[in-house]
Specification:
Bound molecules: zinc ion
Number of helices: 11
Shape: globular
Structural class: alpha/beta
Strand order of the largest sheet: 2-1-3-4
Radius of gyration: 21 Å
CATH architecture of the largest domain: 3-Layer(aba) Sandwich
CATH superfamily of the largest domain: Nitrogenase molybdenum iron protein domain
Amino acid sequence: MKQGLMAAMLFACFALTGCGTDSAGKSADHRLQVTATTSQVANAAENIGGKHVKVTSLMGPGVDPHLYKASQGDTKKLMSADVVLYSGLHLEGKMEDVLQKVGEQKQTAAVAEAIPKSKLISAGEGKTFDPHVWFSIPLWIYAVDEIEAQFSKAMPEHADDFKKNAKEYKEDLQYLDKWSRQEIAHIPEKSRVLVTAHDAFAYFGKEYGFQVEGLQGLSTDSDYGLKDVQELVDLLTEKQIKAVFVESSVSEKSINAVVEGAKEKGHTVTIGGQLYSDAMGEKGTKEGTYEGMFRHNINTITKALK
Ligand SMILES: [Zn+2]
């Protein structure tokens, strides 16, 4: 039984190309080898690349991209790729040196930096831009187009396929955008206030009509100070907002202080659920895809605030 299973696994290994990690394995796999930093970028790349592309992502579920440092294994995955895709706008704050070095040697693109500057939200005086662009679907579509352009440059012989895949993926995203707006319409306008652990939802708020307050700044890096807990407690109490949200990649501790503070003022605030902010769910689950993650957030927000 056990041996049979082993044989089956071995067979599966030979049947698939690129199973080995040696150089021979690589040459047997004719797909474009793509390494992406975040799972949002990787998911878009998989959809656009289809059968011509093999995508490896560095950051898994629950990983905080602001603090993520490239391991030796990651550097290997970056150096062995044909194309490297990252989000950019300083999201991968601790990987900038590595990404710059990689960029000097191979085709590399910061896909969110394809969005026109005029559409980006400033990160504050003297700083650059808020990097959390994937929460506005219309903006994320610019990143999708950029990925298509990168793949077509690397494999011009398959440009038609990439174009077709990107078109289908964008149609899915546009449907998701429309559905999201319909769901949000169930929340009374005055209750559209989103209090979260860190400032990941400014684009979301701007696109879909929420006042957004994050307890921590734009990065989870400790250089950024905590916003006054009392300020948020006052806002929640004044507007009678029912719920605040925690994030999969950020500790709950900070947001609990807000819940406690409101309680002391006689206003009950619940934790409305966990939102995916900078990371997505487990691979193989619905939330492990961009669409599933977005849908989860919309459902969680709508249920808690309406
Ligand atoms: Zn973030």
